[in-house]
Design a protein that fits this description.
Elements: H1 5-16, H2 19-26, H3 30-44, E1 49-51, E2 56-58, H4 60-87, E3 92-98, H5 100-117, E4 121-127, E5 141-146, E6 155-162, E7 164-168, H6 170-173, E8 190-193, E9 200-206, E10 209-215, E11 220-221, H7 224-232, E12 237-241, H8 242-250, E13 255-256, E14 266-272, H9 280-293, E15 307-310, H10 313-320, E16 323-324
Parallel strand pairs: 3-4, 3-5, 8-11, 8-12, 15-16
Antiparallel strand pairs: 1-2, 5-14, 6-14, 6-15, 7-12, 7-13, 9-10
Helix pairs in contact: 1-2, 1-3, 1-4, 2-3
Length: 326
């Protein structure tokens, strides 16, 4: 196969419009870049670049070659990366979507441990509380904390449940009548985890009794850490996952409101594109991620078989030996 290095050098010079800037970007000397371009022009029998004292510009042939070569190189790199991920479970690049609050709280120690165990795996983490579409190909997997998923176009794998609690600061509870039932909650004090223009419904249960409370009439935010800061400041009451509120409970900064009432757990799940077979690189991270979480407080793992689902459950089952559930 023809050496691709001269093509990469040419494309960098074309992008930078400068031999010296391309040399810096490629960690080469300007003289080496000049010789590489000259040899490429001799091989093709065409002048590709016009050099002036101020800049470098493309000839008509150079513009044509740049346009054609750029797509070839991009496709070559994409296929090479896919093969790397598919055949080498301990080497390659992994792109992961992570919820913001969970990522800041849990992921630093997890990533430190993972990099120590797998130093040849490069990681690119994108933090967002939005439920991003993993089918776009932008990510190899997405970590999601949500209600049970209904998406049938992706493969999902539930790892554990995450308990939630309604919490408030003692300074707020000292100024109001302490709620005895969900019906006693003042809607104006109920802060919602919700996206723009939405509210949040808190579904309390106690035995066979069910009560719903609509939160977010006064304040709503799509970030749990921000809501928790409002709670500790005495602004209101919020329903948040245990991994956010536990440090505040330990420091007596907040208290659980309605401790005798239960709230549905959230699911912590991994979502994948519709792989025909789960790539070994993705499986390596998934297994490490689950093992790490088993030692984290506030993660409730079921004793029954792991739950999976989505549009390609056969794929998930074949790669992870999981059982299908709705």
């Amino acid at each position: 196969m023809q050496d691709l290095k001269p093509i990469r050098v040419f494309l960098e010079v074309a992008a930078q419009r400068s031999f010296s800037m391309a040399a810096r970007a490629l960690h080469m000397t300007p003289a080496t870049v000049t010789r590489t371009i000259a040899q490429l022009e001799r091989d093709l029998g065409q002048q590709l670049l016009v050099r002036t004292t101020r800049q470098v510009s493309l000839t008509s042939h150079g513009a044509l070659v740049a346009a054609r070569y750029r797509t070839v190189i991009e496709e070559f790199d994409r296929v090479t990366e896919e093969l790397e991920r598919a055949t080498h479970p301990h080497r390659g690049r992994l792109r992961i979507s992570v919820p913001l609050s969970f990522g800041l709280s849990i992921m630093p120690h997890l990533i430190a441990g993972f990099r120590s165990a797998y130093p040849m795996i490069a990681l690119q983490l994108s933090f967002s509380d939005a439920l991003l579409d993993v089918m776009t190909g932008e990510f190899d997997l997405a970590i999601r904390i949500s209600e049970p998923p209904k998406d049938k176009s992706t493969i999902w794998r539930k790892l554990c449940g995450i308990p939630r609690f309604a919490v408030a600061a003692p300074r707020l509870l000292d100024t109001i009548t302490r709620p005895a039932t969900p019906d006693d909650l003042d809607p104006a004090l109920c802060l919602a985890y919700a996206h723009q223009g939405e509210t949040e419904t808190w579904r309390f249960s106690k035995g066979a009794v069910r009560r719903n409370v609509v939160a977010g009439r006064s304040i709503a935010s799509n970030n749990g850490d921000f809501l928790f800061s409002l709670v500790t400041a005495g602004t209101g009451i919020a329903v948040l996952p245990q991994f956010i509120v536990q440090p505040g409970l330990d420091r007596n900064e907040v208290e659980i409101v309605l401790p005798d009432w239960q709230l549905p757990q959230l699911w912590l799940s991994l979502h994948y594109p519709s792989y025909d077979t789960l790539p070994p690189l993705v499986a390596t991270f998934s297994d490490f991620f689950e093992a790490f979480l088993r030692d984290v407080d506030g993660m409730e793992f079921a004793t029954t078989a792991r739950q999976t689902g989505g549009g390609s459950t056969d794929t998930t089952r074949s790669s992870n030996q999981d059982s299908k559930t709705k």
